[in-house]
Amino acid sequence: MHLISIPAFQDNYIWLLTTKQQTGIIVDPGDALPVIQHLEQQQITPTAILLTHHHNDHTGGVADLIRHYPELKVYGPQETQSKGAKFIVREGDNIDINGMCFNVIGVPGHTAGHVAFYSAPYLFCGDTLFSAGCGRIFEGTPEQMYQSIQKLAALPDSTKVCCAHEYTISNLRFANYVLPENIEIETYLKHIVDIRSKDQPSVPTELKTERTINLFLKCHQLDLKRKLGLDDSTIQPWQVFKRLREMKDNY
Asked: Is the whole model's pTM more than 0.90, yes or no?
């Protein structure tokens, strides 16, 4: 399989997984035009669309893609049915496409029915986990979002986190603000600034890397709790997560 990121809008990524047989799986197509252009240029035949949640910047291109490729099968959670999903998936489902088996992981928080698709090493997590950050909480609760991210954090170190937005620099700047003494975060920020200056994507990123630079994966760590003034023994990690997400929302 070959992974391609297709930029869309201001900071979205639409993902495309292709095979040697020139078939492809499209993930979260908010816009059809750049996808169709790439498919035609590379002579790739798409067979399926995977939708992680209902937001229009992830689903807005589905109708046009189906008109262009009528045989496309569209998979997504119940909340994406009105956006074109015909094959409804939920936590624990396994779907086979183009010789790959995708495990469906329920990750409510950003939206109520958000899911992620995992087929090692690829994790398509929509707006749940970002490089050095996580998504905003619109329809779920902080505790739900924390537990969702914990599910993703349990995957192997080699997992490639294919998130849907280019937010890495802003996330790292926030992390550097919270933990200015953390050399790993500071060094990685400089690295990503250099990458972005060359117009290269900062994702996918490996989960191994995220464990070192993503504050939202460190909510159990005492140094972060102390920084946030939450080192009381009764404070739960999800409460640390809640405080951190609130700070990021207002950063």
From this structure: yes
